[in-house]
Design a protein that fits this description.
By secondary structure, this protein is mainly α. Helices cover 64% and strands 0% of the residues. The protein has 9 helices and no strands. α4 packs parallel to α9 and α7 crosses α9. The longest helix is centred in the last third of the chain and has 23 residues.
Length: 176
């Protein structure tokens, strides 16, 4: 059970925000139902998340691999369930890749060298925060500076997302 109330349609003062979430995400998911306890934070979160997920140069499959990897490393069931069974597969991540992302060291043969470099970078950001120079050298073989920033911010954002979801005990939506 979430540590703060799951708000919804009863909050008519939040109707424009709720309509935006539904328009952009398809429904009012539990994450936003919790975040609406602080409307300003909820709005900022949605703005930032929409940019980092949909308005970068990263291809959808790589984006979802990074999100899922952070989610699995951090034991965040909420994001892992949403991104593993839904977003990742729709973005072109194979079921084998989804399964491998949960391994301590994902099978290298399932990923391109660029994907492997981005995942190693993501692992370092998530596990140790300080990223070794050797990983930067490898990442730069495959990505320009813009993409390095976008990969880093995406991994950092989902470290924040997963930690907030776990701290507030946000549960996945029930399948209807």
């Amino acid at each position: 059970m979430a540590r703060v109330p799951l708000l919804g349609e009863e909050r008519s003062d939040l109707a424009p925000f709720i309509a935006r979430v539904k328009a952009e995400r398809g429904k009012l998911i539990n994450l936003y139902r919790v975040l609406m306890n602080s409307p300003t934070v909820a709005a900022g979160w949605l703005d930032f998340n929409s940019i980092i997920r949909y308005k970068t140069s990263l291809d959808a499959a790589l984006r979802e691999m990074i999100i899922l990897r952070v989610s699995l490393l951090n034991g965040a069931e909420y994001q892992a369930r949403i991104h593993g069974s839904g977003h990742a597969l729709k973005a072109g991540v194979t079921p084998e890749q989804v399964a491998a992302l949960g391994d301590a060291q994902p099978e290298g043969g399932l990923f391109t060298p660029a994907q492997r470099a981005a995942l190693d970078w993501t692992d370092a950001i998530t596990r140790q925060i300080e990223v070794p120079d050797v990983l930067h050298v490898e990442l730069k073989k495959h990505f320009n500076d813009q993409a390095v920033v976008e990969i880093s911010v995406l991994a950092g954002a989902y470290n924040m997302h997963t930690r907030v979801a776990r701290a507030l005990r946000i549960e996945p939506e029930q399948k209807s």
